Amino acid sequence: MRFRVTWILLVICAALGAYVYFYEIRGGEKREKQKQEENRIWKLESNNIQQIELITPEEHVTLVRKNDKEWKITAPRALDADSDELNRMAGSAADISRESVLEAGAKDLARYGLEPAQVKLFLKTKDGKDYRIRFGSNNPTGNSTYAALEGKNDILLVASYVASSFRKKLEDLRNRAILNFEQYETQSLDLQSAKGNVKLVKENDKWWLQGKDRWAADSSAVNGVLSALSSGRLKEFFEANAEDYSTLGFERPLLDVRITYGKDRALKHLTVGLEKSKLVARGGKPSKPEAAKKEEKAGAAPSAGSELYIARDESRTELFFVDKEFVDKVLKAPADLRDKALASFQRWDIDSITLTNTRGTFSFSKTEAGGDWVLGDAKKKTKWDAVNGILDALEKPVKSFIDAPAAPSAYGLDSPAIRVVLKQKNQVKLECAIGKETKEGVYAQVKGESSVKVADKDSLDKLTKGESDFLEPPPPAPTPAAKDQTSK
After folding, report:
1. The domain containing residue 88 runs over which residues?
2. Residues 383-406: what's their mean pLDDT?
3. Nearest to 328 by CA among 224, 252, 178
């Protein structure tokens, strides 16, 4: 009898569990998704939106898609658009949902800030269909905004954060990027300034300074310059007529930047001219940046951040101003971008090290499982710190450079005392020779580089070790007591 009751209870529990899972959980998700679809104002894909119009009592802005990623401003005048912002806006416009219908067939639209509307959003798709909605005031809590479809008087509530994404002025939608390009696609970078001419090229993900000599570049420093160029934002636009000024400084620029990027080696060209305070209109006085004027009015000393410089991107019609912080990040001398390390390489790429010194030749390889270093064909276990010390020594900064070296024999590099070869999958990534000592340190040279370097002697001590220094010591022999215990 008890068994039968238990069995019945188990069946009931299983049925309840199935109900909860299939109806409450899975069914609930389905009903929630269905409700969300029902609340969408319209069914529209963002990538199908061809044109966006934002209309307020103050202005009427028209934005047109150029391609899958780029937009342009066509009204009130032709301007470059912030394509990232407009792609986000198109996504928001395609996905507008109502929270509820507050009043059907409302008579007094002005009560909700809808006559006149605070913002009108007009959309046109690639196939010529129109979608229109008006946004009014926020409700008393501020969490929702009153809205109505164009031509209808049903008052809808939409989330205020959705409505706010369309409350944009012309200035909010202009392209404020200094240069538009993908940093990772950069193939070359040229900088010309009073600090010197810098020509950088990228080969196999490594940057090189080109010129009379070929120097390894500091990739971190180069990426810092490229980051400033690709993600930097202009401070304000130059709205005056350039012809009204005697000079803008572009004929003898403070900074000239040229970048090639992408598979087709597209060119970006940025020129930075005079400081804004030194711009002189014909027959006028030098102007001052707005920030400097405010500081002067308040009696404060001008800050470094208030210094603005006029700039020009050759691919755009409008001129603009950049700040001193941006200029300082890009205005570099060749020495600023030179790699100060003895050798430059990607440590995680290296799976083979061959070290030759006065104590022999040692070949280390990395195991596939765990990435431990082993020595020779016998794959003897090594001390991790000792082998990685070879890489540490190569990455140390050098003391000085000899950029016009004599013959290799003058530095002991014709028959070096130490040689290190780094490989990845049997491909040589780096070969470094260590020559004779000098008062300042030790002469060294990386194959493929024209300069001889003077390295710190102490930093190279890790390259003078022998086999016993690299191998893990054998485990201690068992004591007699331990042997007796084992035999028992």
Report:
1. 46-173
2. 95
3. 224
